[in-house]
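Please complete every field before forwarding. Incomplete forms are returned to the sender.

SECTION A: IDENTIFIERS
Entry label: holo-318
Bound molecule: zinc ion
Molecule representation: SMILES string

SECTION B: INPUTS
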Amino acid sequence: MDHLTRSLLNTYTAQPLDRSAHGRKNPDWLAAQLAHPAAEYLVLDGHSVVTSERTLLVLTQAQFQALDVSATPMLLGLKKTDGTPVFSVNITEPASVLTTFPNIESPSLRTITRQIDPEVASMYSYATLLNHWHITTRFCTRCGTALEIKEGGSMQQCTNSACGHIEFPRINPAVIMRVTKGNKILLARQASWPEFKYSVLAGFVEVGETLEHAVEREVMEEVNIPVENINYHSSQPWPFPNSFMLGYTAEASSDAFELEQDDIEHALWLTAEELKTNMVEGTVLPPPDLSISYSLINDWFHAETGMTLNEFKSSLPQ
Ligand SMILES: [Zn+2]
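SECTION C: PREDICTED COMPLEX
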């Protein structure tokens, strides 16, 4: 399996849109997309998505034009299937603006991801990441002047003509790694997590280091174990609020660990059979399949047992 195929098994990776990088540089082309009669507008409310009658609210061109909102629509891209332009629009207090739509709510994308199509979930993940950047980046980081949205929202430029600094969307890269030794996997939990929830180790990449050094450093900082055979696994955009997860695998050169930081409350080595026993007893709950941590643990679990974590979970009495 190549890395693209493996990444596409992670949630929020099945992107149905072409970002139209060349087209969006042309103001006439952009204006034509904004006027397109079939254009669609995904409605966001800050870091949340907007639903009407518990269905994601996507406005038609006519519905969007009828709204009294000043929000600038952001061009996400064109549908790969038929070229329909898809925009996102941020509407705060949507229930007071979208008065013609019944039962407006603003749930987190995380809570509804499993109920929607994977491509739709990926499109909303992209939209919420972009929206986060626009909400949090409104002034030039160089001179403090207001920024102007350019290229349909994929960049912003400082309006001070003496400056003209350009800002691009920012994401925070984080490494997340499955550490194994022989037939055992290292799982850990943070004190702030729900009881019995365990996952693999993770941490943000720091300035001036390689991804592989970040893996090495984080494992050392968190459990004081040297690792080797560090290999890339897959990646995942993570819109809560603006991370980019880079999955790795690594082998521990020792199984003796020492918790180094306050944020890791407990860690343990488990064989697949021991993990099963703990899952049956409810004493270790692996992460849900939204996050790349599930894929990292699941690949190992599948290789060891011939079944996926979800298959094993669903075989347990409820
Ligand atoms: Zn500036």
